[in-house]
Amino acid sequence: MKIEVNKICETKDATLSMLSIDGQHFCFVLEDGFRDVKQPGRTRIAGGVYNLVKRFVGKFYEEYKRRFKHEFSIQIEGVANFEDILAHIGNSVKDTRGCLLLGFVASLVNYDIVIEQSTPAYLAFYKLVDKAFKNNETVTLTINR
């Protein structure tokens, strides 16, 4: 499975992108803003190609296992100078902590980029990633800045 994230716009603190799966538009992604020097939990990841892997520890793993009966959380592997980067539910940059937030709707509220319908977007994304893993596919994420 090939996932691609293409930047649409950014503010000082937020980056909005479009996520496509195997060439088809899927949803929006909200991340932190660009920083010349990494600030933990406040910096988007660099453009590049990464693998998605299953994660079996942590707050999101425990919460989503309980809430949605998920087997794993979705981790982005191999991001230089970052650890524990996930794709998960959230609506504003306050929810990102350096991770990718998924949503079906994006808007500007009080000069801040927000995404909505994050839970249904994440659940649909999880279902597709889970299917790819069950088919022994490598799941790659290309981030274009």
Written overview of the protein:
This protein is α+β, with helices and mostly antiparallel strands and 145 residues long. The chain has one domain. The chain has 2 helices and 10 strands. Strands 1-2-3-7-6-5-4-10 form an 8-stranded mixed β-barrel. Strands 8-9 form a two-stranded antiparallel sheet. It is globular and about 40 Å long.
Strand content: 35-45%
Count of all domains:
1
Strand arrangement across the biggest beta sheet? 1-2-3-7-6-5-4-10
The tally of strands reads 10
Report the average pLDDT across residues. 96
Task: Please give the radius of gyration in angstroms.
Answer: 14 Å
N→C terminal distance: 20 Å
What is the molecular shape?
A: globular
What is the fold's blueprint, element by element?
Blueprint: E1 2-10, E2 14-21, E3 24-32, E4 48-55, H1 59-68, E5 73-77, E6 85-88, E7 100-103, E8 105-109, E9 112-116, H2 118-134, E10 140-144
Parallel strand pairs: 1-10, 6-7
Antiparallel strand pairs: 1-2, 2-3, 3-7, 4-5, 4-10, 5-6, 8-9
